[in-house]
Amino acid sequence: MDGPLDHSRFDSAPMTEDQDVASSSSESPALAEIPNVGRRSAPRLRLSLPATLTAVERSHRCVLMNISRTGAQIALLQPLREGEGAVLKCNVVDRFVIVTRTEFSVNALAFEEPISHEDVLAIRSYHENFEERERRQLIDTARSWVSGNDPDERAL
Fold it and tell me: Please, what's the b/e burial string for 71-107 (b: 16 or more CB within 10 A of its CB; e: otherwise)?
């Protein structure tokens, strides 16, 4: 970049170094509010977690692709129709949702009641540790099977 930075493209004036230091020292990074940008009513957390979407007709296994305080996006084999209601379950989330958009095998969902900021953080923590927990569970299952302590094995 040869010239000065053009700030006219941004919504607000740039922060001075003093403002940046003051705002970062007064709030914990984990609990700091993230400003809304664009058309979103709340910032999105991108993930990939197994979830269940229970509709009137049946229960669907799905993948939670992203979540915010006001909604979520899921991938599933047979997406629901726009306007249809269901219950989304994944870790601490157990909420009634309305399908707001359907594209191929992806549904955009709006929560009937927004979830708390703490629930979003709990989902983030669950996502960060999910792979390790699954790996440990697989190792424990294999160990039990090899040692003959597999509770699923039934005598014939």
Answer: bbbbebeebbeeebebebbbbbbebebbbeeeeeeeb
Encoded amino acid at 145, one letter? W
Q: Judge whether 80 and 102 are in contact, CB under 8 Å.
A: yes
**DSSP H/E element including 134:** helix 117-147
> Is the entire prediction scored with pTM above 0.85?
no
Alpha helices, H only, 9-116: 17-26
Q: Rounded to whole angstroms, how far apart are CA atoms 48 and 77?
A: 15
Contact 74, 62 (CB under 8 A): yes
Instruction: Give the pLDDT confidence of 25-65 residue by residue, as tens digits.
Output: 444 444 455 454 445 567 788 999 999 999 998 999 999 99
Question: For residue 103, what are its two tokens?
Answer: 């594209």
89's CB contacts (< 8 A; 6+ apart) are 51, 52, 53, 54
